[in-house]
Prior knowledge:
The complex is a heterodimer. Chain A is 0% helix and 49% strand. Chain A contains no helices and eleven strands. In chain A, a hairpin with a 6-residue loop joins strand 7 and strand 8. Chain B has strands spanning 4-6, 11-14, 19-25, 32-38, 44-50, 55-57, 60-65, 70-75, 84-93, 99-103, 107-112. In chain B, strand 4 and strand 5 form a beta hairpin. In chain B, strands 2, 4, 5, 9, 10 and 11 form a six-stranded mixed beta sheet that branches. A five-stranded antiparallel beta sheet of chain B has the order 1-3-8-7-6, with no helix packed on it. The termini of chain B are far apart. Chain B is mostly beta strands. Chain B contains no helices and eleven strands. The interface between A and B is medium-sized, with 30 and 27 residues.
Amino acid sequence: EPEVTQTPSHQVTQMGQEVILRCVPISNHLYFYWYRQILGQKVEFLVSFYNNEISEKSEIFDDQFSVERPDGSNFTLKIRSTKLEDSAMYFCASSEGVGGYAYEQYFGPGTRLTVT
Amino acid sequence: RKEVEQDPGPFNVPEGATVAFNCTYSNSASQSFFWYRQDCRKEPKLLMSVYSSGNEDGRFTAQLNRASQYISLLIRDSKLSDSATYLCVVNIIGSNAGNMLTFGGGTRLMVKP
């Protein structure tokens, strides 16, 4: 069964450093997403991406964040100048399309980011 | 007011029991609805979509009441492996026609032998 993969599984970084989280969405999916979950809190939407551009983003997704699809398979989330409060699990998701039940989102296993 | 509200639980039930979870959502523009399950420190896994007519998948039954903005999940004949956190999720279509899933805080279920 096809699945979303993410690397690394755990990333430790110092405050102020830049990190890049990587995702390989399901191969025939066209829509890609990043979510985050701070420990003990709910999953929160960050951004959605289609046709090489951002389609939606939340208030959390400020200038510190950026996304990119550098090639035909990878989808990355870059966090510049990390802060302690960026420590969370970051989930990548993908879907075939948008707009209805048929376009369910499937999540990767996540990258646990720890900012020290 | 929380956008998607769930009773956090935990619900402690014996194996074989029937358990029901409820969820309310505040945004009437919500387009589609899902239940995901999440095991500790793992990713959300899609359990089922929720249709207006109600739908069933094996031991799981989901219902949607758009007028009351209310979603439910019923689990029959609980198994130990059903122990997890159940996330009520609504999909809102953004201004650019993109999907944005909004998650509830989850309801924790513990099934005991």
